[in-house]
Amino acid sequence: MTIKNIFYAFGFAVLFANGLNAQNDSGRVKYNFNYGWKLNVGDAEQAKEITYDDNKWSKVNLPFAWNQAEAFKVDISHLSTGIAWYRKTFQLPKEAVNKKVFIEFEGVRQMGEVYVNGKFAGRHENGAMAFGIDISALVNPFPQENVIAVKTDNDWKYREKSSNSPYQWNDKNFNANYGGMPKNVFLHIKSKVYQTLPLYSFLGTTGTYVYASDFNIAQKKATVNVTSQVKNEEAKTVKAQLKVSIKDLEGKEVASFLGEAITLEPNQTKDLKASKALQNLNFWSWGYGYLYTVTSELMVENQSVDKVDIKTGFRKTEFKNGMVYLNDRVIMMHGYAQRTSNEWPSIGMSAPAWLSDYSNSLMVKSNGNLVRWMHITPWKQDVESCDRVGLIQAMPAGDSEKDVTGRRWEQRTELMRDAIIYNRNNPSILFYESGNESISEEHMQEMLNIRNQYDPFGGRAIGSREMLDSKVAEYGGEMLYINKSAHIPMWATEYSRDEGLRKYWDEFTPPFHKEGTGGTNHTNVNGTKVVDASAYNHNQDAHAIEDVVRWYDYWEARPGTGARVSSGGVNIIFSDSNTHYRGQENYRRSGEVDPMRIPKDGFYAHQVIWDGWVDTEKPAAHIIGHWNYENSVTKDITVVSTADVVELFVNNISLGKGTQDKRFLFKFKNVQFKPGSIKAVGYDKAGKAICEDEIKTAGNPVGLKLTTIERPGGMLANANDLAIVQVEVVDEKGNRCPTAMNMIDFEVQGQGTFVGGIAQGPDNYIGSKNLPVECGVNRIFVRSTETAGVISIKASSQSLKSTAIEVKTIQTDLDKLSTKLPSDNLPSYTEKGPTPRTPSFKKTRIPVAIIGAKTESNQADVAKSYDDNELTQWSYGKNDKAVIEYELARTANVNQVVMKLAGWRSKKYLIKIAVDGKKVFEGSTPLSLGYVTIDFASTKGKKVQIELLGSEKDSDAINLVEITGKVDQAGINNADKTIQRLPIVEIEFYEPVK
Questions:
Q1: Where in this chain does the record put each DUF4982 domain (predicted)?
Q2: Model-level pTM?
Q3: Which residues of 110-129 are buried (b: 16+ CB within 10 A; e: fewer)?
Q4: Preceding peptide of 573 cis, ω within 30°
Q5: CB under 8 Å to 977, separation ≥6 — which residues?
Q6: Residue 71 carries which DSSP code?
Q7: Closest Cα to residue 196, out of 147, 240, 245, 256?
């Protein structure tokens, strides 16, 4: 079965094939507060008053951004902004008398002022992070009604009231402005002696901290530690201790233990602790979202008064030798730099929790292991989703594109503090990102101190983009280029800028997209003209190929290739995003899936090249494109494969072996289309067939096919849940017709409403009940009502047979204090299984250390060319002899020189290399994203001489231009552009494995 067939056959169902994890409602202290809200867009200052009449307001259930219907309809800089009010009436439970009451907001954009029964409760302003408010003194006991009103303001220019300072991350370029209350809200009811919430802003509390230590991965052992901050608001001294129980993924209790009893004075806050060594643990891993439920029960005078359930996983991490270790196995980072909004058409970021799982699991299915959320802290729903699907996260706090000072820096540290406290129990977070660009060492130390104070044992590295020579950061890596290190891991925070609209297969398929067309015609948010981005505007063929080409430089420097290695990188982005666009559409098309998460060819290309922790573990092949052309078409075919040799067949007739390029690309020139099938077979070095992919020609379109993707266990009748309805144009055998572009008319009846999808065209067809398929397929959303029943969806198109499908919705708890949390019963994705115990890579070469170097020019800087610091370099002076001689630590059979030369993406240097005086290479260095490898016959020696033979030559073959027009000079200073130099940033020498 081919990769594509596996994906469609396996589908979304696998994510939910593991047992459900129902939450016990007895003793519940946390309620879903999402239901029963009313919304008014516009200012209504009297809405905070109890007597205000809100009968004419719109009824909404959260999460709900008041402008979310504009998602993908307009550029984010044009999203509607202003004041909006949310209002809700509710009763507390009878048993809440004399209890503490807290409200938890996962986030309000940008500002939220909270009023309870007409009284001001608090204001939160950073627009990114969760916050909590103690409303105990403001609420009325049962059976009295309570009124909560929230005033929101999502002004792009919003300024903090106390300081008049803007927030750096409230930026039109990337922070999609879904205003109001786009995230979940919860209500907590607790005794007066209680475990605090992990909500530092307002409450000043840190909650419960769960972590593991003393790992023995091979024997499946670790010590589980629980530290819970407890506060006594009784008027008397109490004796308290923790009782901890741990349940596995199937709900079976695997451990129960007590902590030491302590005494708490009135109004005193202390940390209570408990720990126990456990065995037979299942460790959380990539694609193995194994989670335990840790229940921290507070016992006061031997009576249970408060319970906190924490879903968490246990894993061991290390960050050393330039590599990342997960459960004692090296893992090379490969994944996506994704906008934190993670948005969808017409609903923005306010997706139901299962839909977050579906989207994030697709990153894992593409063999991505890391998502780097960009600029802003992700919301808790996505954080918890990554736990379930086994996707590693890099969690930022909040920033724009540079270091800042004063109050704006303080805002960043406060956000990082709050985010760490809130998310430190989530095992999928392995990196804390302190900045989207490098920050000062002083600021890096501040961030490290915050991590050490609030998450000292969580096994997470803190760093920032760049930080290449930092002595404080625990990881780093540039945006577009490859970095290597023998010290802290270096992984590229964004390594691809290329785009390809899903609608465009290639230049031979309607609408016949030529490479580079569809360029920019708009301006930046600051009013400047967007630089010509033609080089980024691909069709699906070229975009997928570019994905593979861009990854090659990182793969070439992977762990196992020496003492200095790359720890990988993330491709920007995963799903097309309504931000920072370059093409003629008002959204970015860099995704490997489109906004409705329909895969593009790049998705399958990544499945092939990323299949493994470091080295390839399952050989695979993918033919780029389709096999439905006009009979006159002759085109080049590209196969992505990890095999050593690939052979192509058309209707079982061999066209020979492909020409290999960049290791994973196999090209076949001038292949003539013939109806039937095209098949690629991959072979290992011994000639054994190890993988294949086949595409068959579809017949003429005759009808439509509808399928659905729904919440596991059924679509909820809560007026908020969604179902994805996929429509395909198919032939008489039910095969998708890959070149179809038919217009589809949708009709929705019953207990559901039409939401819509997206396609290229007017307003991107947002909200339209008529939209075309692209490449034979498209998707829409339908939303449930609050009444359980059947949603009927009909799809029709001229000259094609119509079809219909039904979705059944199930009743759920819609109480204003609902006992059903949004993520209840969502199971884990564990398809990849536990961390393998075998090594993740084989050594491919042996590094030979350098002990010194001699040159007639700039001897003082010579060590900078091999100091494991990519921000230093050595170079010749203008009139000096361009030669340097390195002395190796031992005599070696040298066969490779690896160099990072300043200007690596645009300059070719004519050099000569000699080993102990014997010339082994003469020629121009190739362009790259950082490092170049010069191969030659193994030559025994201890001294290696590098000589520049002539002036460097410029090339624009690697076109990396920012949207603003900024061009990174890749280590070339302006003063050096016209001077003949050989600027060596880093140099390494290797001999073959014996």
A1: 635-691
A2: 0.95
A3: bbbbbbbbeeebbbbbbbbb
A4: yes
A5: none
A6: B
A7: 240
Structure tokens at 8: 């469609």
Contact (Cβ atoms closer than 8 angstroms) between residue 895 and residue 990: yes
> Hey, what are 596's tokens?
């409705």
583's tokens: 């093409």
Sign of CA dihedral 216, 220, 221, 226: positive
Residue 539 near residue 505 (C-beta atoms within 8 A)? yes
CA distance 768 to 791: 18
Please give the structure tokens belonging to residue 123: 């204001």
Secondary structure of residue 592 in the 3-state scheme: coil
C-alpha–C-alpha distance, residues 788 and 810, integer Å: 5
The CA-based angle 680-683-687, given to 5 degrees, is 135
Catalytic residue among 125, 494, 728, 870: 494
SS3 state at 654: strand
HSE at residue 13, side-chain half, CA atoms within 13 A, is 8
DSSP structure string for 398-449: B--SS---HHHHHHHHHHHHHHHHHHTT-TTEEEEE--SS---HHHHHHHHH
- Does residue 4 sit in helix, strand or coil? helix
Nearest to 336, CA basis, from 54, 568, 47, 622: 568
Contact 192, 233 (CB under 8 A): yes
| Beta-carbon contacts of residue 762 (< 8 Å; ≥ 6 apart) | none
Within 10 A of 943 (CB to CB), how many other CB atoms are there? 17
**Which runs of E-coded beta strand occur in 70-165?**
83-90, 100-105, 111-116, 119-124, 131-134, 146-153
The identity of residue 363, as a single letter, is: M
Q: Kindly state the DSSP code that residue 532 receives in the 8-state scheme.
A: P
Q: For residues 50 and 29, give the distance between their C-alpha atoms in angstroms, rounded to a whole number.
A: 26
* Alpha-carbon torsion (698, 700, 703, 704), positive or negative: positive
| Alpha carbon distance 375, 537 (integer Å) | 25
Name the pLDDT band for 821 (thresholds 50, 70, 90): very high
Q: Which residues have CB under 8 Å from 982's CB, separation 6+?
A: 875, 876, 882, 884, 901, 909, 911, 946, 948
CA 899 – CA 874 distance, rounded (Å): 12
- pLDDT tens sequence across 911-967: 999 999 999 999 999 988 899 999 999 999 999 999 988 776 776 666 665 555 555
Report helix, strand or coil for 76: helix
CB neighbourhood size of 654 (10 A): 11
Backbone φ, ψ for residue 429 (5° rounding): -80, 115
Q: Is 494 a catalytic residue?
A: yes
Q: Collect all residues with Cβ–Cβ distance below 8 Å to 543 and sequence separation of at least 6.
A: 498, 499, 500, 600, 601, 602
DSSP state of 367: T
220: tokens are 């499946």
Kindly tell me the sign of the dihedral angle through the C-alpha atoms of 330, 336, 337, 342.
negative
The H or E element spanning position 885 is strand 883-901
Residue 23 has pLDDT above 60, yes or no: no
Q: What one-character-per-residue DSSP string does 463-501 give?
A: E-SB-TT-SS-S-BB-SSS---BSSS-B-BS-----EE-
Number of other CB atoms surrounding residue 299 within 10 Å? 19
Task: Give pLDDT tens digits for 673-732.
Answer: 999 999 999 999 999 999 999 999 999 999 999 999 999 999 999 999 999 999 999 999
